[in-house]
Amino acid sequence: MENLDEQVKEIQEKYQIVGRSEELKSILIAYYSKKNILIEGEIGTSKTTLARAFASYMDKKFSRVDGSEDILSHVLVGYFDPPLVITKGYIKESFIYGPLSKSMQNGGVLFINELNRFPESTQNVLLSALDEGYLDVPKLPPIMSKNGFITITTINPRAHVGVTHLGEALKDRFVWMSVDYQNGEEENEIILMKMRDLIDKEKIIVDGKLIQKIAKISVKITRLTRNHPDLRRGASIRAGIDLASLVLTSSVRDKPIDSNEIFWYASSYMALASKVELEDGSEKTIKMVIDDIVTTVLKDF
Q: What is the CATH number of domain 4-179?
């Protein structure tokens, strides 16, 4: 039997995950302890990536449901198909299984993104499935969970709009773990990896020093958005990846980037504007804030 450190290393190598050793180990420990997991973290902190990599590594079917007030209980559990009921009656063959009931039956991973966006009635459907491994469906035998079934859910700590309070009974069914932004070195490595993927796919010929420079600048710009006084929400690593990709493309298809610094401003606005939020009452626009950050970073290069 492999130990946890060996498994973590395998997952990292197989699914190109940079860092996140402790988080992956926590997921594995929870799984072997037969516990469901609630992951709290900002947007873009690899919550979905970790869950999907774990499911694939364990060779489990991965069912994703994104939280929304439109997700009613029958969407999770399933429903009787009216035409089939007319011809066959209320039998198993007339029932359309939902992601919860399917995952329970195949021992898979049910991944719920932003659980606190579910209506309270939908949240309550999970209670018996998570606690006792069964679902009661009227006119059908109880649906029992197969060994290995696990629910991994996420919540965004700043998602205050359009969310529903998680009941104590539901929270009690999960073990909790937190993920934060990764350090600068790991984010730099992630951006370099994504840039190399783009280079390979597009068969781009580019100087290695330029790639390093683009990654460093992109990381610095992205990270500065997270503690800027005019921003309520900063950008995740996705913004850094997008920014580096835009600048890399410009460097090989447009003028050399070193002689075209203005493109850093345009690319930064393209990559960041949809991923940051202004503080209430700020006298600046998002573009002004981004321009200030880019100017600050480029002074060091």
A: 3.40.50.300
Q: Which residues of 94-118 are buried (b: 16+ CB within 10 A; e: fewer)?
A: bbebbbbbbbbbbebbbbbbbbbbb
Q: Cα separation of 103 and 135, whole Å?
A: 12
Q: Hey, which residues does 64 pair with through a beta bridge?
A: 111
pLDDT tens digit string along 257-279? 444 566 899 999 999 999 999 99
pLDDT at 116 over 90: no
Burial zone of 259 (CB within 10 Å; 0-12 exposed, 13-18 middle, 19+ buried):
exposed
Domain definitions of the chain by residue range: 4-179, 184-298
C-beta of residue 150 within 8 angstroms of C-beta of residue 31? yes
Question: Is the pTM above the cut of 0.85?
Answer: yes
Domain 184-298 fold: Helicase, Ruva Protein; domain 3 (1.10.8)
